[in-house]
């Protein structure tokens, strides 16, 4: 049975390592953190998924990490803590974080409008989109549709041009059509809105979104395993494959969403790099000084728009283990699943990833996050 591409992306979203730079946790090695592999293996077996990995850090060091299971059903290679998993919609907060960097550098503005940024890209922008701002799109309040128009989505899946050009074609088509709601009045979770936001940043800087994210995030905080698209190389087994459930059996697939919606969800990396990123946001959430962003920018990223619980790529929520409000998001391309928690109350950033996206995989990741937090309390 062929995988349904139309609904490929979804989102609902103790050893010391020495010092930690103002940018985030650095110099991670699996030999210097508590190995949580056996704890995660119990959870993986319980939920019967191919692989599960997780990590937890506080605002100054990595505390524990582990991995359990296999990279690809039908093969024997085991996963490790440095293996790459797809992050799905956790990419959204990374795009918003990039936007905050560019705002501080005076290369963008939160109130930058679609018309200001994209009029050179397309003069045929629907009037109702023209005054939509960057911050509205990052809050999912820009009126962008929850589902892409079928013809644009099919074209995006052909992946015929360079990544930025694919986005340009996709966004140009989106902006010709009226928004699905009056911009600024309604929350509508939209990958398309983040694609528009990414295109706006590209037009204001002249650089592809991928290049900016590499320079302004991955390199700055040493996310050495981070990249775009599905992990690894086609047909090789050096990184985890994603899986779908056919009947009672998992089937491995190497595929990802088109770069057209890259700013909404195409980043991959190791769970330790995911938590390294979470630890950066933890410092900002706790009001600690960072060289990466000013305090006001962290507050902007983590504060929901009026009347909703969704901030810029983060949702305000709590779990029993957080002992108070936290920021959270999940991500999936329907082949992998990932979750990231940042709890200022507990001073913990916790992430978990799986190479499947079933309900069991989602439950396993949340259980792994709770277990890891409990191990270091």
Kindly describe this structure.
This protein has helices spanning 37-47, 91-104, 114-118, 134-138, 150-158, 163-176, 191-205, 209-218, 262-265, 271-285, 295-302, 359-375, and strands spanning 34-35, 51-57, 62-69, 85-86, 227-228, 242-246, 249-253, 267-269, 315-317, 326-332, 337-343, 348-354. A seven-stranded mixed beta sheet has the order 1-3-2-12-11-10-9. It is of the alpha+beta class and 377 residues long. Helix 2 crosses helix 8 (209-218), helix 5 (150-158) packs antiparallel against helix 6 and helix 6 (163-176) crosses helix 7. A hairpin with a 4-residue loop joins strand 2 and strand 3. The longest helix is centred in the C-terminal third of the chain and has 17 residues, at 359-375. It is built from twelve helices and twelve strands. It folds into two domains: 8-90 and 215-375, Beta-lactamase; 93-207, no CATH class.
Key terms:
Beta-lactamase; 2 domains; 7-stranded mixed beta sheet; 3-stranded antiparallel beta sheet; 12 strands; disordered N terminus
Fold topology:
Layout: E1 34-35, H1 37-47, E2 51-57, E3 62-69, E4 85-86, H2 91-104, H3 114-118, H4 134-138, H5 150-158, H6 163-176, H7 191-205, H8 209-218, E5 227-228, E6 242-246, E7 249-253, H9 262-265, E8 267-269, H10 271-285, H11 295-302, E9 315-317, E10 326-332, E11 337-343, E12 348-354, H12 359-375
Helix pairs in contact: 1-12, 2-7, 2-8, 2-11, 5-6, 6-7
